[in-house]
């Protein structure tokens, strides 16, 4: 396919009744059955193409992939029109810092889009970006209007080369370091070191000139037997930033020690 970016196709995926073809700076939709009568090959209105063919992954009602400065979700606006949403504004700095994008690999599991990627030029996917596709919320974007956004978790320490699931839908990954297979979300990482996890969520309080009062904020964390967990909570509001360290063995906020 010839387009203004002059790049060759890097990935293709079936989405609805169309074959979606990804290029470096553009995306195309191939529909129809008979090349002589009803086939159409036309550009899709998108924010960006991709350099990461294995980041393309179907996730619920979306076809998601890694762009240059955002994780993008392709969605069906109506029967005749496809569009894209930038669903990762809370982790833009991380995405812009990514390197070795051709090695990024994604999977959809348990309502989450998991993208293993690299940000240290090592060529090893040293972090995983987890988008909660089943928990979307609306956010007003000044440039594009109202948009769907997902909460994100950032996991460091898994060194993922590939993903797969067994017949019981249990998620595993192949290590890019030692070639072994590890069960995800189970104990330490593949270097036997603690896994660092960062959870992000943006609260949209609408009108910036209206007084807001946030009475309560509840954080739920799960600590497994034989492992330790420390939570660092940071709340950013304008120029202000509040940080609190919470030891799960004892409450840092409500003086409650029963975490079951």
Q: What are the defining features of this structure?
A:
1 helix; mainly beta; 260 residues; 2% helix; disordered C terminus
- Percent strand: 35-45%
- Secondary-structure element series: EEEEEEEEHEEEEEEEEEEEE
What radius of gyration results from the CA coordinates? 21 Å
Main sheet record: 5 strands, antiparallel
Strand order of the largest sheet: 9-10-11-14-18
Sequence stretches where pLDDT stays below 50 over 5 or more residues: 252-260
The best one-word shape is globular
**What count of helical segments does DSSP give?**
1
E-strand count: 20
Structural overview:
By secondary structure, this protein is mainly beta. 2% of the residues lie in helices and 42% in strands. The protein is built from one helix and 20 strands. The strands form six sheets. Strands 9-10-11-14-18 form a five-stranded antiparallel β-sheet, with no helix packed on it. It has a four-stranded antiparallel β-sheet with strand order 1-2-3-4, with no helix packed on it. The chain starts with 10 loop residues before the first strand and ends in a 13-residue tail after the last strand.
